[in-house]
Structures are given as structure tokens and as C-alpha cells.
Known about the structure:
- By secondary structure, the chain is α/β, with parallel strands linked by helices.
- It folds into 2 domains: 10-149 and 213-253, P-loop containing nucleotide triphosphate hydrolases (Rossmann fold), CATH 3.40.50.300; 150-197, no CATH class.
- The chain is 41% helix and 13% strand.
- The chain contains 10 helices and 8 strands.
- Strand 5 and strand 6 (170-172) form a beta hairpin.
- Helix 2 crosses helix 10, helix 3 crosses helix 4 (78-89) and helix 5 (95-103) runs parallel beside helix 6 (124-136).
- The longest helix has 15 residues, at 199-213.
- The chain is globular and about 40 Å long.
- Bound molecules: BIS(adenosine)-5'-pentaphosphate (AP5).
Amino acid sequence: MSTQNKQDREAWLQGPTAQCQVVPEHGENPWRLVLLGAPGVGKGTQADLLHQRLGACHLSTGDVFRAAGSRPDCEQSPAMKEAAGYMRRGALVPDSTVWEMVRERKGCLHCGGGFILDGFPRTLGQAESLKKLMDSEGLSLTAVVNYDLPFGEIVARLGGRRTCEKCKAVYHVTERPPTVEGRCDRCEGKLFQRDDDRPESITVRLEAYDRSTAPLIEFYGKLGLLVSVAATGSPDEICAATLSSLESRHAERVPQAR
Ligand code: AP5
């Protein structure tokens, strides 16, 4: 399997009327992963690295909401405007809005390259809806990776994060700085700090995680899908630990380290 696929994600970011220009290679057994973990634990960073190794597309619900929020006001639906308000405060967007958005993108779950869901599901209701949809579409998850990190490190990661406004690549001012300050290494887009990375929103997000998302660890544990990985160390080390944990479950699938 190629590990150098460039991901496009147009169909995911813009919705079902858009088409991906770069269609991932179809594998016999595409990886269908869910990444769990508190805000700032490094799910997006790992999704990007895992995409490079496994070829599966990085599908983040947060990125869809941010892409919708950056469109002109007149092009935004009332539900998306409402979602932007929840996000700014650090609160979860209501299940009905999230589900509507995912359901209309269900074609991405059939992608021959596979997928890495990041930030979805985030409540038991969302997890149950996803399971029902995948069962009815004849699809199944390969594994659910749960990343764990002490609270203090999470806050430091969120406070220093910078994101590219064009390609959404993620940096950190001290841990993963770009080569040129304020500019993306990949596309030279401008880097910005997310509204919800302010201290008051971070607290609300971490509370929402404890209340609504942490119970998914037990949910997926009972389904026999859970793989736990400590999110300490460098991004490459964490990615290697993830691949090794996946390898012990699916020996035939993981590409050997290069
Ligand atoms: P979303 O975009 O999903 O954000 P999140 O889950 O809060 O996660 P983050 O993107 O903040 O963190 P991450 O774990 O991806 O970490 P990252 O890799 O960036 O959601 C945002 C909002 O949208 C929600 O609050 C909610 O309002 C709404 N929403 C989205 N989906 C929803 C849903 N399903 N239901 C309801 N509402 C929903 O890393 C963080 C930083 O650390 C970066 O700077 C990175 O460079 C750095 N870093 C990463 N790894 C390391 C490392 N190993 N060492 C040092 N630094 C590192």
C-alpha cells in the first residue's frame, strides 16, 4: 500500500456535492479507525501521521465546522451559525446537527482508502448512530485508538497550537514550530490561533470531554475495538506506538517501518 497519498478531503470538508480531486488508492482491507482522547491530546497530529503510513483519509468533524464557519455569512446555514457559537464557547455542538452533517457525508465512510475519524463520535448517542449506520451499510470499524495524556500537558499543547487557515496543518509554537514563523511549511498559508484555544474555552472543552466523551472508552472496550496508547513523547514516537499496538491486533495490515 502506498504510504505517500496526498489527502484531499474535499468531499468531507465541503459536503457531498464536492468531489475529491485526489482519490485514495483502494486497498483490499482499508483502515477504518476512530481516534478518541481529550481535546489537545494530539488526535489531529496523529491522524495526519497515520494517514501518511496507512493511506486512510483524516476526517475531522471540527475541521468541517471550521470550514463552514469561514464561508461568507450569506452561505452559512442557521445550523452552522449555531454550531460556530457552541464551538467558540468550547461546548459540544448538539448531536442532531453533528449527525446531520456526518450522515450527508456517509459516502466518505465507503472510501476505498479507508478513514480516520477524529472528533467524532463524541457522545454515546453519536457512537450508537455511527454503529447503526455502519451496520446498515455493511461496514465495520477496524479499531478505536484512545490517546491518554496528563491534564497539564494537554493545556500546554492547546495554548501553543497554531493552525494553517488554508490546509489545516497543525503546528505548536515550541514543540512543532513552522520553518518560517506564522507560515505553513506545506502551503505557505497563514497560521492562526483557534478561538476555542483561549483558557476559558479550554476548561469548558475538557469538562465536556469528561462528561460526554470519556464514556466512549467503555462503549468501544465492550465492543472489543479499543486500543490504548500513551500520548507522551514526540509525535513520531506516539505514531510508532500506535502502529505497533495496531500491529499486534492486525499483524497482516500494518506497513513495516521504513
Ligand atoms: P475538534 O476540532 O475536534 O477539537 P478537539 O477534539 O477539541 O481536539 P483538538 O483539535 O483541539 O486537539 P487534537 O487532539 O486534535 O490535538 P492536535 O493534534 O491539534 O473540535 C472543536 C469543536 O468542534 C468542539 O469543541 C465542538 O464544539 C465541535 N465539535 C467537533 N466535533 C464534534 C462532535 N462530534 N460533537 C459535538 N461537537 C463537535 O494537537 C494539539 C497541539 O499539540 C498542537 O499544537 C500540536 O502541534 C501539539 N502536539 C501534538 N502532538 C504533540 C506531541 N506529541 N508533543 C508535543 N506537542 C504535540
